[in-house]
User: Fold this.
Amino acid sequence: MRYPSKTIRIDQTGGPEQLKLVDLEVGEPGAGQIRIRHHAIGLNFIDVYHRIGLYPLPLPAAIGMEGAGAIEAVGEGVEHLKVGDRAAYAGGGPGSYCERRVMPAMNVCRLPDAISFETGAAMMLKGLTAQYLLKRTLPQGGLHAGDFIVFHAAAGGVGLIACQWAKELGLQLIGTAGSDDKCALAKELGAAHVINYNKEDFLPRVKEITGGKGVKVVYDSVGKDTWDRSMDCLRPFGLMASFGNSSGPPAPFAPGVLAQKGSLYVTRQTLFAHIATREATQDMADDLFAVVGHGKVKIRIDQTFPLAKAREAHEALEARKTTGCTILVP
Ligand SMILES: NC(=O)c1ccc[n+]([C@@H]2O[C@H](COP(=O)([O-])OP(=O)(O)OC[C@H]3O[C@@H](n4cnc5c(N)ncnc54)[C@H](OP(=O)(O)O)[C@@H]3O)[C@@H](O)[C@H]2O)c1
Assistant:
C-alpha cells in the first residue's frame, strides 16, 4: 500500500522560497521503523541550516527534525510503540515537514496523555536540548543552586525552556535577547537577569551582575556575533558551551586563547550525540515529560503556521520575529 503525504521539500539550497509543497507517497515501515501521521510539526533553527546548506543534505531533501502524531504502522522488532499510540520525536533524520512519514522508531517516544500533540511537537527537540545542556553539559564540579550561567537568545524556543528549567534547578540564568519585550518575557519565565544585547554590551553587565567574577558556563547558540565576548564572561576554568550558529559560525581560534582567558574549556554540543540510543532518548524524554507534566516548564507555542506556509515560518524565525516555540500544522 502507498499513502499520500503532502511534504515540504527543497530541490536546491537557498532562501525560504526554496521550500516547496509536493505530493509524495509513503509505504510500509521496515524493520525498526514506524509510520506516523503528524498532527503537528516543530520548527527549529536547524531547519534553516539545512535549507541554506550550512549543514549539507543530499538533494532533493525533505527537512524538519521534530514532530508529533499517531502511530499508523509498526515495523518488525519495534517493541516500545504500537498502532494508535500518540507519540512525539526529535531526530530520526530530516523529513518531518509532511503529513506522514516512515522513520526509525528509535527516537520516537510515547506521549503522555496530558501532553497535547502541539506541545509534543514543539518541545521534543528544544526541550531535550535544554535538558542535555543544563544537566549534561557542565563545568568541572558541576552546577549548583545559586550559580550564574549566561544563556543567549533566552526568549527563543530553546531559550524559554532553559529559563524555566534553570530556575527549577536553582540556577541564576542571565538571559540575553534582542528586544525589551523579549527580555521581559525571559524574565517572566525564570531568567534571574536579562540583557537586551541589541541595546547594550552584555559583557560589562555580566561582570557587574556577578560582582566581577564571571559565570561558570555560557550556553551560546548565537555563534559569530557573541563568541569572543561570551568567552570573556567566563570565570577561570569556566565552560564555553557552544550549541548553535544563528548569526553564523564563530571564527576559528587558537587554543592558546583558552590559557590567556583563565584555563577555559570549550565544547560544541549536538543533541544527536545525546539521543544516539533508545535508552538515552527515553531517559531524557522522561525527564522532560516530568517537568512539563508537573507544570514546572511550560511550552509556549507563540506561532502556528499551516504546513503549506512553512516559507513564512522560516522568514519569521530568521528575521528574529518569533518567541518561544513555533509549530506547523498539516
Ligand atoms: N546543538 C544542538 O543540539 C541544538 C539543538 C537545538 C537548537 N540548537 C540551536 O539553538 C539555537 C536556538 O534554536 P531555536 O530553534 O530555539 O531558535 P530560536 O532561539 O527560537 O531562534 C533563534 C534566535 O536567535 C537569535 N539570533 C541572534 N542572532 C541572530 C541572527 N543573526 N539571525 C537569527 N536569529 C538570531 C534571535 O533571538 P534574539 O532576537 O533575542 O537575539 C532568534 O530569535 C539555534 O542556534 C539552534 O541551532 C542547537
